[in-house]
Design brief:
Layout: H1 11-19, E1 23-29, E2 36-41, H2 50-68, E3 80-83, H3 87-99, E4 103-111, E5 114-120, E6 128-136, H4 140-153, E7 156-165, H5 170-176, E8 180-186, H6 187-196, H7 202-215
Parallel strand pairs: 3-4, 3-6, 6-7, 7-8
Antiparallel strand pairs: 1-2, 4-5
Helix pairs in contact: 1-6, 2-3, 6-7
Protein backbone atom coordinates (compact mmCIF):
# COMPACT_ATOMS: atom_id res chain seq x y z
CA UNK A 1 0.00 0.00 0.00
CA UNK A 2 1.40 3.44 -0.91
CA UNK A 3 2.79 5.40 2.01
CA UNK A 4 1.60 8.93 2.75
CA UNK A 5 4.21 11.28 1.32
CA UNK A 6 3.55 15.00 1.19
CA UNK A 7 3.40 16.30 -2.40
CA UNK A 8 5.90 19.11 -1.93
CA UNK A 9 6.96 21.28 -4.82
CA UNK A 10 5.56 19.90 -8.05
CA UNK A 11 5.36 16.27 -6.93
CA UNK A 12 1.57 16.53 -7.26
CA UNK A 13 2.27 16.02 -10.97
CA UNK A 14 4.03 12.72 -10.28
CA UNK A 15 1.04 11.54 -8.26
CA UNK A 16 -1.47 12.70 -10.89
CA UNK A 17 0.41 10.92 -13.67
CA UNK A 18 0.66 7.74 -11.61
CA UNK A 19 -3.08 7.77 -10.89
CA UNK A 20 -3.81 8.25 -14.61
CA UNK A 21 -1.68 5.22 -15.47
CA UNK A 22 0.70 7.44 -17.41
CA UNK A 23 3.86 5.95 -15.84
CA UNK A 24 4.78 2.53 -17.23
CA UNK A 25 7.76 0.20 -16.83
CA UNK A 26 9.11 -2.32 -19.32
CA UNK A 27 11.14 -2.06 -22.54
CA UNK A 28 10.20 1.01 -24.57
CA UNK A 29 11.66 2.51 -27.75
CA UNK A 30 11.59 6.29 -27.47
CA UNK A 31 10.36 8.45 -30.35
CA UNK A 32 12.44 8.34 -33.50
CA UNK A 33 15.46 6.87 -31.72
CA UNK A 34 16.53 3.27 -31.16
CA UNK A 35 17.03 3.84 -27.45
CA UNK A 36 15.43 1.33 -25.10
CA UNK A 37 14.15 2.84 -21.88
CA UNK A 38 12.79 0.95 -18.84
CA UNK A 39 10.36 3.80 -18.09
CA UNK A 40 7.77 5.53 -20.27
CA UNK A 41 5.61 8.51 -19.32
CA UNK A 42 2.54 9.36 -21.40
CA UNK A 43 1.69 12.94 -20.48
CA UNK A 44 -1.01 13.09 -23.17
CA UNK A 45 -3.24 11.32 -20.64
CA UNK A 46 -3.52 14.62 -18.76
CA UNK A 47 -6.42 15.50 -21.07
CA UNK A 48 -8.37 12.80 -19.22
CA UNK A 49 -8.13 14.83 -16.01
CA UNK A 50 -9.26 18.42 -16.70
CA UNK A 51 -8.39 19.54 -13.17
CA UNK A 52 -4.82 18.25 -13.48
CA UNK A 53 -4.49 19.86 -16.91
CA UNK A 54 -5.78 23.14 -15.54
CA UNK A 55 -3.40 22.94 -12.60
CA UNK A 56 -0.51 22.18 -14.94
CA UNK A 57 -1.26 25.31 -16.95
CA UNK A 58 -1.42 27.40 -13.77
CA UNK A 59 1.88 26.04 -12.45
CA UNK A 60 3.56 26.61 -15.81
CA UNK A 61 2.32 30.18 -15.95
CA UNK A 62 3.41 30.88 -12.37
CA UNK A 63 6.85 29.43 -13.06
CA UNK A 64 7.30 31.64 -16.12
CA UNK A 65 6.12 34.71 -14.20
CA UNK A 66 8.49 34.00 -11.31
CA UNK A 67 11.49 33.53 -13.61
CA UNK A 68 10.68 36.62 -15.64
CA UNK A 69 10.43 38.85 -12.54
CA UNK A 70 13.86 37.96 -11.17
CA UNK A 71 16.56 40.62 -10.93
CA UNK A 72 18.30 38.78 -13.75
CA UNK A 73 15.31 37.25 -15.62
CA UNK A 74 15.60 33.60 -16.62
CA UNK A 75 12.81 33.97 -19.17
CA UNK A 76 12.85 36.48 -22.01
CA UNK A 77 9.69 38.42 -22.94
CA UNK A 78 7.57 36.63 -25.57
CA UNK A 79 4.57 37.53 -27.69
CA UNK A 80 3.36 34.04 -28.73
CA UNK A 81 3.42 30.49 -27.44
CA UNK A 82 3.96 27.55 -29.77
CA UNK A 83 2.79 24.05 -28.90
CA UNK A 84 4.60 21.04 -30.34
CA UNK A 85 2.17 18.36 -31.60
CA UNK A 86 0.69 16.44 -30.09
CA UNK A 87 1.20 16.55 -26.34
CA UNK A 88 2.44 20.12 -26.41
CA UNK A 89 -0.71 21.36 -28.15
CA UNK A 90 -2.93 20.59 -25.17
CA UNK A 91 -0.60 22.30 -22.73
CA UNK A 92 0.04 25.29 -24.98
CA UNK A 93 -3.71 25.74 -25.45
CA UNK A 94 -4.34 25.60 -21.69
CA UNK A 95 -1.41 27.97 -21.08
CA UNK A 96 -2.64 30.39 -23.74
CA UNK A 97 -6.17 30.46 -22.34
CA UNK A 98 -4.87 31.16 -18.85
CA UNK A 99 -2.16 33.68 -19.72
CA UNK A 100 -4.05 35.33 -22.62
CA UNK A 101 -0.92 34.98 -24.78
CA UNK A 102 -1.79 34.13 -28.43
CA UNK A 103 -0.84 30.67 -29.65
CA UNK A 104 0.60 29.25 -32.87
CA UNK A 105 1.67 25.78 -33.93
CA UNK A 106 3.35 24.07 -36.86
CA UNK A 107 0.98 22.02 -38.98
CA UNK A 108 2.42 19.49 -41.47
CA UNK A 109 0.42 19.39 -44.70
CA UNK A 110 0.69 17.25 -47.80
CA UNK A 111 0.34 18.58 -51.33
CA UNK A 112 1.36 17.48 -54.81
CA UNK A 113 4.98 18.39 -54.13
CA UNK A 114 5.15 16.35 -50.95
CA UNK A 115 4.98 17.25 -47.29
CA UNK A 116 5.47 20.82 -46.10
CA UNK A 117 4.77 22.67 -42.87
CA UNK A 118 2.57 25.67 -42.25
CA UNK A 119 2.39 27.88 -39.19
CA UNK A 120 -1.16 28.05 -37.91
CA UNK A 121 -2.13 31.23 -36.10
CA UNK A 122 -1.35 34.91 -36.63
CA UNK A 123 2.22 36.05 -36.11
CA UNK A 124 4.55 38.85 -37.09
CA UNK A 125 8.18 38.64 -38.15
CA UNK A 126 10.54 39.48 -35.29
CA UNK A 127 8.25 38.28 -32.52
CA UNK A 128 9.64 36.02 -29.78
CA UNK A 129 7.92 32.68 -29.20
CA UNK A 130 7.86 30.49 -26.10
CA UNK A 131 7.88 26.84 -27.20
CA UNK A 132 5.78 24.50 -25.04
CA UNK A 133 5.88 20.71 -24.97
CA UNK A 134 4.70 18.07 -22.54
CA UNK A 135 7.94 16.09 -22.28
CA UNK A 136 11.50 16.39 -23.55
CA UNK A 137 14.03 13.63 -24.15
CA UNK A 138 16.78 14.65 -26.58
CA UNK A 139 15.37 18.02 -27.62
CA UNK A 140 15.30 17.17 -31.33
CA UNK A 141 11.68 18.23 -31.87
CA UNK A 142 12.27 21.55 -30.16
CA UNK A 143 15.37 22.31 -32.22
CA UNK A 144 13.53 21.48 -35.46
CA UNK A 145 10.54 23.60 -34.43
CA UNK A 146 12.69 26.56 -33.47
CA UNK A 147 14.62 26.40 -36.75
CA UNK A 148 11.40 26.28 -38.77
CA UNK A 149 9.85 29.21 -36.91
CA UNK A 150 12.94 31.28 -37.58
CA UNK A 151 13.52 30.32 -41.21
CA UNK A 152 9.93 30.39 -42.45
CA UNK A 153 8.48 33.27 -40.42
CA UNK A 154 11.37 35.20 -38.87
CA UNK A 155 10.25 34.29 -35.35
CA UNK A 156 12.73 34.06 -32.48
CA UNK A 157 12.91 31.39 -29.79
CA UNK A 158 14.75 31.97 -26.52
CA UNK A 159 12.96 29.74 -23.99
CA UNK A 160 11.36 26.30 -23.96
CA UNK A 161 8.84 25.20 -21.32
CA UNK A 162 8.05 21.52 -20.61
CA UNK A 163 6.19 19.68 -17.89
CA UNK A 164 8.64 16.77 -17.63
CA UNK A 165 12.34 16.62 -18.45
CA UNK A 166 13.59 13.04 -18.85
CA UNK A 167 17.04 14.43 -17.98
CA UNK A 168 18.83 12.74 -20.88
CA UNK A 169 20.88 15.70 -22.04
CA UNK A 170 18.20 17.87 -23.65
CA UNK A 171 19.02 20.87 -21.45
CA UNK A 172 22.65 20.90 -22.56
CA UNK A 173 21.79 20.26 -26.20
CA UNK A 174 19.24 23.09 -26.26
CA UNK A 175 21.72 25.44 -24.59
CA UNK A 176 24.17 24.75 -27.43
CA UNK A 177 21.48 26.00 -29.85
CA UNK A 178 20.79 29.11 -27.78
CA UNK A 179 17.64 27.86 -26.05
CA UNK A 180 16.92 27.92 -22.31
CA UNK A 181 15.00 24.91 -20.97
CA UNK A 182 12.47 25.35 -18.16
CA UNK A 183 10.99 22.17 -16.71
CA UNK A 184 8.33 21.75 -14.04
CA UNK A 185 9.47 18.29 -12.95
CA UNK A 186 12.46 16.03 -13.60
CA UNK A 187 12.10 12.31 -14.22
CA UNK A 188 14.50 11.41 -11.41
CA UNK A 189 12.51 13.43 -8.86
CA UNK A 190 9.32 11.74 -10.05
CA UNK A 191 10.87 8.28 -9.66
CA UNK A 192 12.20 9.15 -6.20
CA UNK A 193 8.71 10.21 -5.13
CA UNK A 194 7.06 7.08 -6.53
CA UNK A 195 9.63 4.87 -4.83
CA UNK A 196 9.43 6.68 -1.49
CA UNK A 197 5.63 6.47 -1.52
CA UNK A 198 5.70 2.72 -2.21
CA UNK A 199 4.10 2.97 -5.63
CA UNK A 200 6.80 1.25 -7.67
CA UNK A 201 9.04 -1.76 -7.17
CA UNK A 202 12.68 -1.22 -6.28
CA UNK A 203 13.83 -3.23 -9.32
CA UNK A 204 12.21 -0.85 -11.79
CA UNK A 205 13.31 2.16 -9.77
CA UNK A 206 16.96 1.07 -9.90
CA UNK A 207 16.81 0.21 -13.61
CA UNK A 208 15.26 3.58 -14.41
CA UNK A 209 17.73 5.56 -12.31
CA UNK A 210 20.66 3.72 -13.85
CA UNK A 211 19.27 4.45 -17.32
CA UNK A 212 18.93 8.18 -16.56
CA UNK A 213 22.44 8.45 -15.13
CA UNK A 214 23.85 6.55 -18.09
CA UNK A 215 22.23 8.96 -20.54
CA UNK A 216 23.44 12.16 -18.91
CA UNK A 217 26.30 14.06 -20.53
CA UNK A 218 29.60 13.53 -18.74
Amino acid sequence: MPQTIRDTGNLWLARALWELGAVQFGDFTLGRTTLHSPVYVNLRLLISDPRALQRAARVMQEEVQTLSRMLHPHVQPFQRVCGIPFGGLHLATAFSLRSKVPMIYIHPTRDRDGTKTNIEGLNERGETVLIIDDLITSGGNVIETGAHLQMSAGLKVRDVLVLLDRQEGAKERLRAHGYNLISILGLESMLNYLMASGRIEEEWYRKSIEYIHGRRPS
